[in-house]
Amino acid sequence: MKSNKVKYIFLVIIVLIIIGAVIYFIYRNNKNDENKNDDSSNNVARLAVESNIPANDEQITEINNRIENSAPEATVSEEELATYSTKLGGSSEGRLTNIRISCEKLNGTVVSNGETFSFCETVGPSTAEEGYKEAPVIVNGEKVQGLGGGNCQISSTLYNAVLSVPNLTVVERHEHGREVHYVPEGKDAAVSYGSVDFKFKNETGNDIKLYFSTDNITLSATIVKLI
Questions:
Q1: Nearest to 117 by CA among 186, 27, 206, 198
Q2: pTM of whole model > 0.85?
Q3: What is the pLDDT of residues 13-45, one digit of tens each?
Q4: Which of 3, 49, 135, 207 is deepest in the core (most CB within 10 A)?
């Protein structure tokens, strides 16, 4: 009888040990799964930041926190150096169209410090495919009709603005061979793609930016310094 009781107690102990081992095994497995999930979440968040992969709400919050704590991009300030305006009175509809097209091409041009600006290279050839119209141009001192008539007023307007800024050095400039009405005598800058150009070199120590605007009455060229 006593022997059976000892066997019973021993059996109970063995069962308890087995149950404890099973519980411990389950606990360890659950813990490992949690750690794997945490690692997976971190990886997903990292990949979402680096590769734009969609994440859940908690991961999105983490991503937003990283973005908010990141350093902001440097902003660029502008300081006006010079503005020059000329009148467009008497211009034909075709000439006004040409001036508008070329102003759109030139507007926002950045000339880095040490760089040479070329009017003709920036604007390119005046073609009908780009919308340019026939308008008066001066060739060998005579007025004739040609695509892009009006570009010389833009280059001359810019030339007079450039003259107001120290260390913008004129590299190339040509007169028309006859007086033009929109700038003082001797202050014009003729341009013709592949022939004559208006160029200046930026030696101000800063990058500059060019702005052009027209309302069909006035044409303006503005030069700003980028800080």
A1: 198
A2: no
A3: 776 777 766 676 666 666 555 554 555 444 444
A4: 135
